[in-house]
Amino acid sequence: MDITGVVAIISVFGIIPLIVFLVHRHKERKALIEKGMDLSTLVGDKKCSTLESLKYGVLLIGLAIGILIGNILDAYTGLNEEVSYFSMIFLFGGVALLIFYGMAKKQEDDK
Predict the structure, then answer these.
(1) In a designed cystine with 44, which of 48, 97, 100, 101 is the match (CB 3.0 to 4.6 A)?
(2) CB neighbourhood size of 66 (10 A)
(3) Residues in domain DUF6249 (predicted)?
(4) CB within 8 A of 32, min separation 6: which ones?
(5) Distance between CA atoms of 28 and 33, rounded to whole angstroms?
(6) pLDDT-derived band of residue 48, with 50, 70 and 90 as boundaries?
(7) 36 pLDDT higher than 90
(8) CA 68, 84, 6, 15 torsion: positive or negative?
(9) Contact 71, 1 (CB under 8 A)
(10) What is the C-alpha separation between 83 and 91, in angstroms, rounded?
(11) For residue 54, what pLDDT band results from cuts at 50, 70 and 90?
């Protein structure tokens, strides 16, 4: 079992947008500091940050479960390695986002 290709593709398409985002954010903050503006406007409210952390946590758990189930499908069925991994990663990633949506909606309704 060799998933280096999968990891390489995810790394390339994950690292490049991250670098672009960080460079843009740095330039934006630098411009605000030069104009003498307050940086507290860039920091979101605590509720948004908590929900964002929850979203990423649930998504990463879903992706991990998808990799695990993909490995099980690869080992015990006749599915190709790529098909089993990618299908389960996308399936469980999507399910995780739907679960997050339900959790966020319930939290919003409670208030």
Answers:
(1) 48
(2) 23
(3) 7-104
(4) 38, 39, 41, 42
(5) 9
(6) low
(7) no
(8) negative
(9) yes
(10) 12
(11) confident
**How much of the chain, in percent, has pLDDT values that exceed 70?**
89
How far is the C-alpha of 49 from the C-alpha of 63, rounded, in Å? 21
Domain ranges of the chain: 1-43, 44-111
- Residues 6, 90 contacting (CB under 8 angstroms): no
Q: pLDDT of 80-109, one tens digit each?
A: 888 899 999 999 999 999 999 999 899 888
- Cβ 81 vs Cβ 74: under 8 Å: yes
- What does the H/E/C string look like for 18-61? HHHHHHHHHHHHHHHHHHCCCHHHCCCCHHHHHHHHHHHHHHHH
Cβ atoms of 61 and 96 within 8 Å: the answer is yes
State the amino acid at position 8 in one-letter form: A
Q: Look up residue 56 and give its amino acid.
A: Y
